Amino acid sequence: MSNKILAIVGRPNVGKSTFFNRLTESREAIVDEMSGVTRDRNYGKAEWNGKVFSVIDTGGYVVNSDDVFEAEINKQVHLAIDEADVILFVVDVESGITDLDDAIAAILRKSRKKIIVAVNKVDNNQRILDAQEFYGFGLGEIFCISSMTGSGTGDLLDQVIEAFDFSGEEEEEHELPYLSVVGRPNVGKSSFINTLLGEDRYIVTDVAGTTRDSIHTRFNKFGHDFVIVDTAGLRKKGKVHDDIEFYSVLRSVRTIEKSDVCMLLVDATRGMQAQDVNVFNLIVRNKKGVVILVNKWDIIEKDGYSTRKVEEQIRERIAPFTDVPILFVSAKTKQRVHKALDFAIQVYKNRKNRIKTSKLNEVLLEAVENYPPPSVKGKFIKIKYVTQLPSQTPSFALFANLPQYIKEPYRRYIENQIRANFDFKGVPIQVYFRQK
Ligand code: GDP
Ligand code: GDP
Fold first, then answer.
1. How far, in Å, is the centroid of ligand 2 from the Cα of 434?
2. Which structural domain range is residue 336 located in?
């Protein structure tokens, strides 16, 4: 899996989210159907000519109030320059160049990032002529597109792929578990890593693949050999934009994509909030293993039921994918930090779990017999056999005579049966129905 990031910047109403939806739609629709995960508006995966990349629509993060607009947008453009690989600057041919466009262009011109200008709403040929004024930005070639009809987007995406430079991008098969600690600012990520690894960090080596923005370090602790994927963001403490969600999402995306298992830290004093759920969804969307760690447990006043109550609240928020380990920890008192690592390693193993076809059929065909897919328009759906696909993350294909009639609730039933019979705790799994 690739971890290239395209950030879409531009002032409001130029069509950023329309373009974002077009770019991520087909793929997203599949993912949604499969995992039942709700989509958030701002982050998605896109695929063009077999190349996969992440797309972030910065627009979704702008506070919707006139006086903060310009400052806010400028801040986001700076962040996009810092964090993304390629920046797509979207402008609107209907309005022509506005002051805000000029302000954004000025920031982009000073950056050394690859910038692509998309002139949107070029729905007809006349507008191609109108679009020429955008060469005035001095940002190089412009691409005329219509996000509404899709016209021109193919050429644009060819350019995006070229700008990314995918050479040497094959995902390396890790021999060791690649773990990371993710979560919102101030949940205690740095503290947790320090507690886990101690002052006398048993650093074995720096691992190849370490780049400017991510540092992979190999450790041997508590009987486990593993790699901690750490982003520069974790180290640069007190950065001014630590509190900006867009920034933390960008950081999280990078980290998550490089990990096998993510330890998602949640602040015990706040519970699982919308932003935590967003990060959880990013992990699931990337099909990575996950362990939820409720940190700062030391400062919570406990009555006999508190863990159960908090656990329930969390499972409600992350439904339908609730087969996830939840652990109450304290980076400060070191409570269960060691155990958190054990859990993460177990999830890593679960993610590698390959079930024998014979066993899989024995279990699932019986489940199908007990509860067959409901017939549709008088047609009976027969599931003949099941196999685990040879993919990096657990995926199962069920072969049926009429797979197109099988609906989401039944897919979920099968997933639950798989989870009930085999250990995939903490691991997103895919279930497909295919024609036999
Ligand atoms: P954002 O604020 O930049 O994310 O802009 P939106 O994607 O919400 O689009 C703003 C408006 O422009 C909406 O009413 C869209 O329907 C419209 N729009 C977006 N793309 C196109 C396009 O290619 N052609 C036309 N004519 N309208 C578009
Ligand atoms: P990060 O931004 O996620 O890396 O968070 P930090 O590790 O910088 O922690 C943020 C604040 O929470 C700091 O003041 C920490 O001392 C505090 N903190 C972190 N973990 C714990 C914990 O388990 N218990 C308590 N009481 N405070 C914690």
1. 48
2. 178-352
